[in-house]
Specification:
Uridine Diphospho-n-acetylenolpyruvylglucosamine Reductase, domain 2, 5-stranded antiparallel β-sheet, about 25% helix, alpha+beta, Uridine Diphospho-n-acetylenolpyruvylglucosamine Reductase, domain 3, 9 helices, Uridine Diphospho-n-acetylenolpyruvylglucosamine Reductase, domain 1, 4-stranded mixed β-sheet, binds flavin-adenine dinucleotide, single chain, 16 strands
Length: about 325
């Protein structure tokens, strides 16, 4: 059945799709549909759409879904996914101007070719909007270190420029208000010889390949490293604990629930080994948290974002 667009939904030059499944738009390949999926044509289109959208309609921007579990019941409201109109990457005056839909890896390579070191982005599988929102980083460098300014469209449809101070970055966190959509960023980095930058990125890719299940269906690190944890509270008793170690010590490497598994290669990578539901993945993650708490007293914190509604309880529905 084709659904017609109700008169409350604004007109757009982009694509507005009702009931669009989201599983194929996420790395874990799970989750129910978006009530609406909106792919704006460009920034003006996005701003006009948000201005006209009823204020009570929730919106949720997604990048390439590499840090998300979308629950099996899907997401209410409008999921916004930036596409071709937001992909451009240009280099001006030693800085990189990039659309929010550009992949981190493409930005890193284009920057390297122009002699700018944004190499840490080469191995992170997201897009720039998600990288900013999450303050993505690795090998000691984060988006917070390279951002000059960003453009965003507010929930009310206003186009604004944000400074790093506005975003108040910390570990995997930015203060971007809910419902704001990042559309563009200007980044800077140290200069370097393009060949040397390419070589360093190749080495980091090889290191990832050797230590992380980069070809499996995952969303990266499942839990934050409980660094700084101290059993005595004394500064001299701070252990640099790794989440994978405490998961392993609790006997949860390889643990399974339905199609979900704690990866054998790296037990902090929750993996869809085939046929997992979002409930399998989230349920296994919660079981791991519980077991680790019992085993070592450490309360692991999710790094993967879980969004949306659980699947409707069919048994309950039938009884009613
Ligand atoms: C194999 C693997 C390795 C990984 N390694 C790392 C790593 O080393 N370091 C690291 O930091 N992360 C890592 N991650 C996690 C993930 O890649 C990052 O968090 C990434 O920045 C998410 O980007 P995304 O485009 O996929 O965002 P999504 O997962 O789609 O969304 C993440 C968040 O960003 C928001 N968002 C996305 N786009 C926009 C936008 N345009 N405007 C406003 N908000 C937006 C979403 O609403 C959501 O809150 C890894 C993931 C995988 C699968």
């Amino acid at each position: 059945m084709t659904r017609t667009i109700p008169h409350t939904m604004p007109r757009t030059r982009g694509a507005l799709t009702p009931g669009r499944p989201l599983a194929d738009l996420t790395w874990l390949r799970v989750g129910g549909p978006a009530e609406w999926l909106f792919q704006p044509a460009d920034t003006d289109d996005l701003a006009a759409f948000l201005k006209a959208l009823p204020a009570e309609m929730p919106i949720f921007p997604i990048g390439v879904g590499s840090n998300l579990i979308v629950r099996d019941g899907g997401l209410r409201g409008v999921v916004i996914r930036l596409g071709r109109g937001f992909n451009a990457i240009t280099v001006e005056d030693g800085r990189v101007r990039t659309g929010a839909a550009a992949l981190d890896a493409h930005v890193a390579r284009k920057a390297a070719a122009a002699g700018i070191d944004l190499g840490f982005l080469r191995t992170i599988p997201g897009a720039i909007g998600g990288a900013l929102r999450m303050n993505a980083g690795c090998y000691g460098r984060y988006m917070a270190d390279v951002l000059v300014e960003a453009r965003a469209v507010t929930r009310a449809g206003e186009v604004v420029t944000l400074t790093p101070g506005d975003l108040d970055f910390s570990y995997r966190y930015s203060a971007l208000p809910d419902g704001w959509v990042i559309t563009e960023a200007v980044l800077q980095g140290p200069s370097g010889a393009p060949e040397a930058l390419e070589a360093a990125m190749a080495e980091q890719l090889a290191r990832r390949d050797a230590t992380q299940p980069v070809r499996d269906r995952t969303a990266g690190s499942t839990f934050r490293n409980p660094a700084g944890y101290s059993s005595t509270g004394r500064a001299d008793d701070v252990h640099d604990l790794k989440a994978w170690r405490v998961i392993d010590a609790a006997g949860m490497r390889g643990a399974r629930r339905g199609g979900a598994v704690m990866n054998e290669m790296h037990p902090n990578f929750l993996t869809n080994a085939g046929g997992a539901t979002a409930a399998d993945l989230e349920g296994l993650g919660e079981a791991v948290r519980k077991r680790v708490l019992q085993h070592s007293g450490i309360s692991l914190e999710w790094e993967i974002m879980r969004v949306g509604e659980p699947a409707p309880d069919k048994g309950k529905e039938n009884k009613e």
